[in-house]
Amino acid sequence: MEKEMENKEILAALKNAMRGEMDSINIYQSALANSKDTEVINFFNNMVEEEQRHYNYLLEYYKSINNEETLKAIDTKDAENMIFSENFIERIGSNQMLFSAISVATLLEKNAFEFYQRSADQADNEVLKKFFEKMVTWEKQHYDNLIIIADEAENTYWQKNRFEPF
Fold this sequence. Notes:
Layout: H1 2-32, H2 38-66, H3 86-94, H4 96-122, H5 126-160
């Protein structure tokens, strides 16, 4: 009976995580529709693909636990470090929708890595614990990249919109 309760909690956590990944996918897809710049499109396409991979990993574990199968380590693909050009930063800062998408995505990624850290801390299953720790690393990398973009694009955003501190 205790194992069943534990599995219900794990399944609920995985569903919550899948919902978060879908929110990120939707934000990135929405941003894609608001740019014609190749570099910006490539960035958001890459983010969509990574979040879809994360969703699929979560779904695989969800199905395994739901079917009471032994959990196996999933063969994961590490994300690549990104370098952002001045043009890319300017495009983000010049477009209200893109700048907002970066801001919202930053919050989603922060929520994600904090959630995965709590899940890793609470996981008894070693395979699941290692998976959640890997997710922390990935989502933290996304968060760090988005913070860099937001910080660098903010000046362009303020100049373009003629905002002045009071």
